[in-house]
Amino acid sequence: MVLPIVAYGDPVLRKVGKEIEKDFPKLDELIENMWETMYNASGVGLAAPQIGLALRLFIVDATPFAEDDELTEAEQNRIKGFKKVFINAKIEEETGSEWNFNEGCLSIPDIREDVSRKDTITITYVDENFKKNTETFDGVLARVIQHEYDHIQGILFTDKLSSLKKRLLKGRLANVSKGKVNVEYRMRFPNMKKGR
Questions:
Q1: Considering the domain boundaries, does residue 194 fall inside one?
Q2: Is 113 a catalytic residue?
Q3: At residue 29, what are phi and psi to the nearest 5 degrees?
Q4: What are phi and psi of 53, to 5 degrees?
Q5: Candidate list 32, 128, 148, 184, residue with the active-site label
């Protein structure tokens, strides 16, 4: 089922997600709904807070980045088919050089900005079968994971911008929270009861 995506300004996007227990009711169904919602909105990642749930859960399918001509062939091959569920994730370490990459967010449509992040991360998480993993990612994969991880920490990519950029975006961000955006997917705005 395609769920409405929560828009900028909703308090749930500022909450630190709660850990998910192994017996969480209908977890498989929730994950399936998140995949459907993300693909319906042409996203590469989606976190539970973006569908209104303050939980430590996010999904990533970085495959669309495999078409990026600016990436090396090796990185394109690594990204192709990269599809993962991250539950109770914790970034253990961020290393490497900081680099800028143009980021956007399904909860903040029509706004894209360069965000600086470290190149490499080591993350511990459990997958949809509650198998524990510790993995290291770099480049675009690290970037997408960091963005989604921020969501379960109550952080948005706009928080990482300079104070000048934030001031310049203030009006546009206010419009997003009021529903004054043109999107091709269902959204739920802070001042509305139902998604459109």
A1: no
A2: no
A3: -65, -40
A4: -115, 120
A5: 148
